[in-house]
Known about the structure:
globular; alpha+beta; 4-stranded mixed beta sheet
Amino acid sequence: MGRRYRLYPTVDQEQVLTGWGHKARALWNVALAQRVHVYEQRGRTVRAVEQCRYLTEARAESELAWLAELPAQAGQQVLRRLDAAYDNFFNPEHAAKFPAFKKRGSRLSIPLPGQAVVVRKLNRHWAEVRLPKLGWVRFRLSRPLGGTIRNATVSRDGASWHIAFGVATGIKAAAPNGKPGCGVDFGVAASAYVSTETKPRIKPPGLTDHERARLRHLEQRKARQLTHAKKQNAGKYGNRLRRTIAQIAKLKTREANRRQDFTHQLTTDLAKNHGFVGIEDLRVTSMTASAKGTPQQPGRKVRAKAGLNRSVLDNCPGERRRQLDYKCRLYGSELRTVPPFQTSQTCAACGRVDPESRKGCGRLFACVRCGHEDDADHNASVEIEARARRTGGSDINSTRRRRTVPSPAHQRRRTRETQPATYS
């Protein structure tokens, strides 16, 4: 299980952590560049075990003194995470792309193994963690750890520092709770409509009107400052531009936290109070693909599609599915995915499929066969529940990729097609 807490470093500790974050990012880029170069020149793969030996030698050289400032355990964890990124890329069941180089504006992150950190409780609400080469740092104990620490990650978002622990809790899947099931239709106008409820659940706005106006003002200021930096400062960022970027990041972090809070409350309630939760097996990547097309065949209504994509991603259906996957096991429930085909055009009363039952994709569903009328999203959620009961959780007609074991020849061909083409 993951445990994430708000970290409160001192000013000096914050400067050290910021430097570590940039050094960990640079190490990732150097290690990835080395792997790509070795494969292109010699046709072989370098793994973390070999690169850890190079890292030990590099830390002793004066030309690479910045590597010695980063804790050795953190550097080794960076290389192991690069291994995991490669494994995900070659895993046919994982949608990961080839590992990418990290920009300076990427989120700062310092990974550490569980043996490198020590946690002690100060009182009911506060604790502190001892980080290598830094000492004790306080964090808000918002919930008990509840297990043995296996790993830790110090990170910084747009507003503050956090520390996340990977904890071995020993908790097993709960027995079936015996409660009635439900179907849930995730949408944009109605964030979630549960089949057993009469009103939809609406996600509150991520930002208030005042915050949205300030964000627009800051983005306009950033555009002006970027233009000035390109013309007058050879593209280098000044302190004013960095402050503007930090203020924008703080507002966007606040919006993301509110979105995450609503998602956690929704998924916890669904998993805790139902025997099974039926959802559509959506392909979010395909749903939010750009409509701009190509220069030869340009797309139509590109800006409207971009706005729809933002609305879909703001409701984060993929994150809701991920949370339901593990929360259902904790609360004795079951997550059942059903084919999403024509759920919005199927009558939940008689089963008739007809696009005329929902003209213009409006909020009203009126069956042309039996005359059944209902809210379109609620009708879809009832149909999702019915399909979840029939399939019993199996992925019949699933839109996701099947479990396949690729041959070694397929893996080599995929590597040749992807790696040199991306980093030639």
